[in-house]
Amino acid sequence: MNKTGKVWAGLLLLLTGSLTAPAQPGQAQPATPAVQWVETAPGVWKGSVGKPEAYDLLTASGAQPNTAALDRLGKTAFPLAPETIAARIVGGRTYLRFPLERGEQLYGFGLNFQSVHQRGKVLQLHMDHYANRDNGRTHAPTPFYVSSQGYGVFVNTARYVTVYSGTAVRRDSRHPAESKDRNTDKTWSARPYSDAVEMLVPAEGVEIYVFAGPKPMDVVRRYNLFNGGGCLPPRWGLGFTQRVHRLYTAEQVKQEAAEFETRGYPLDFIGLEPGWQSKSYPCTFEWDKTRFPDPAGFVKDLLKKDVRVNLWTNPYVSPDASMFPKIAPLSGSHTVWTGLVPDLTLPEAQAVYWEQFEKDHLAIGVSGYKIDEVDGNDVWLWPDVATFPSGLSAEQMRQTYGLLVQRQSADLFRKRNTRTYGLVRASNGGGSSFPYVIYNDNYSHQDFITGLINSGFIGTLWTPEVRTSKSGEEWLRRFQSVCFSPMAMINAWSEGTKPWSFAEVADPVREVARLRMRMLPYWYTEFARYHYDGIPPFRAVNLEDGFNEKPESRTVVASLNDNPYQEAVSQEIRDQYMAGEYLLVAPMFAGQTSRKVILPKGRWYDFYTGRFAGEGEVITVTPGLEKIPVFVKDGALIPLMPPMLHAPKAGQKVDLEIRHYGEKPGEYRLYDDDGETFDYEKGRFSWRTLRAERTRDGRWRGSISPAEKGKPNTVGSVTWTFMTP
Ligand code: GAL
């Protein structure tokens, strides 16, 4: 640091939170004091700048680190040169700066739908309904990014954060951009190299966290574990779900469930849209007695058929709701669709509000919610000039309302020692452990897949829900994707499309829905790994080993163009993703008959046939309409159960077919617990080791470790299939 720098550092230490003098013309920008870092958990450092606000994303979510799991990831050094991180407070706002190397790529910065690479963008991370632009306004505007260099940064604030992710070029840059003459120099660029990620937080201080790698996947795992680990849904949550017309009566809902059964389509929970409530938009949260004269009997009847009930709602309270008089003084200054916005940071408001949910819904066996409209859309939501009785600003409320409703509704189920799994339209940093999946109304199949890829970087779950389709082909293609996602859901209530509506694809639709069910043991184990190890079940191929920004080519090549694999992986990949430890999914979109798939290093096999598909290369596949291309890693073990129409109940034993793929021996830990309660938190779970190895005479042999005494064990008989000829 030079002399001027020292003076500035001293000044800034004294001036925390107040205005610093502007630099004189011709004088370089002042250097800034280094942020003091404290390792709060293994591989996670906290830096505090100025006076961080008491209310932030971690306060709102209540996330508690899983320190034991973080410990298991091991000790590691601070992943950045501390002097390259700068922070200062000017004019009541916090300026943050992090370094950016030339070859570095950035991922995350919220739930984006059209891009995976986030370098070179200006974003305002602002809770909003996604409006077809990756500009930071989205359903989870999470201020967290992961670098391809193997570290991550989380800004723990409930404010709108402005991000310059490698766009701005400073005069005092350590890597000054070279000035070129546009008239004559062909290498001139309008986007000169920027060596920093800069962020602006509208508050006089903020808490920041740095997560270590060494690999980007380790960063993501640390981030999730720091937030308590990913959610572990009930088994039934990973089955199949359908939403019914908003004006359906109890009888019609029951008939619909029965039709699934008779036609042989799986169904684990059924979602009721607004008309179950006596009034909605704003909501009463009370049953409409004309359509549902006996709600308790209705829920019970469906439960007898192994079908659970999920209720749509938005949070805004109707003047006709019985809670209205009590919640009114505890609500914000503005209404949303003429409904009250309860200040859910106030314990009194929480008590009044959720009591209704507990009494009218949970007590009669409702299994979960779809919590709509918590993301915003400027003209609908409360404006930024709104005030709340807690004194929190409208901005803080907007950034965190999705977290609050998830946390508080999930707590209701937890109090009953019952797991839930539902839908929400807004989340944010700190929300990894909430049992909610984000959805939206945009309906681009391609963008939905990119959303799925991006959700894995930021500790959220996303469903590429199926609503409507112009053709049987599109219906099937969308259906295939949703069956390889965190929630296999049809939300075609307004159009009335049923899984079997397009007769020409009714069979393959049923087949893929049943495949979803067959794969439950795999999905469930992969969610357990999300919970215990922080590994997102659905994620970008960029997080895979052997798949990185600068792959070494297998052959010596003169240029990128001579190596299509190397070329392919250095580009942005927004249409293929990993589903759990072993599967690479490459969805097909309507109109496509073939597509390219980039296979990471190592040998990959076709999921359906077990045949070799390729190795660290770009392949072209022509799968036919009935199949979604899925590729399996060498040595993979995929546990399957019979194609049941409902997920197994607590303690129910199921037979397993374990498939082995490829030439390598395989080992996989299969997770088990009751699938419904929180008893796993008291140690009531087990992991059993599956192994496939060759015997001396060259034949494959599979084994499963014995069930532990006194531990949950739902494995019935086991058969092995060695898929690769
Ligand atoms: C929308 C929501 C839809 C549906 C609808 C009900 O806002 O995104 O999925 O639930 O409300 O009115």
Describe what this molecule looks like in 3D:
With 725 residues, the chain is of the alpha+beta class. Helices cover 21% and strands 22% of the residues. The protein has 14 helices and 33 strands. The strands form 7 sheets. Strands 18-17-16-15-14-13-19 form a 7-stranded parallel sheet. Strands 1-2-12-9-8-5 form a 6-stranded antiparallel sheet. It has a 6-stranded mixed sheet with strand order 3-4-11-10-6-7. A hairpin with a 3-residue loop joins strand 21 and strand 22 (583-585). Helix 5 (250-263) runs parallel beside helix 6 (295-304). It is globular. Bound molecules: beta-D-galactopyranose.
Radius of gyration, in Å, reads: 26 Å
Order of strands, widest sheet: 18-17-16-15-14-13-19
Question: DSSP strand (E) fraction?
Answer: 15-25%
Q: What is the tally of helical segments?
A: 14
Hetero compounds = beta-D-galactopyranose
Could you name the ranges where pLDDT drops below 50 across 5 or more consecutive residues?
Answer: 1-31, 551-558
Q: What would you give as the CATH superfamily of the largest domain?
A: Glycosidases
CATH topology of the largest domain: TIM Barrel
The number of distinct β-strands equals 33
Mean pLDDT: 93
Structural class: alpha+beta
Overall shape: globular
Give the termini separation.
Answer: 64 Å
Helical content (DSSP H or I, runs of 4+): 10-25%
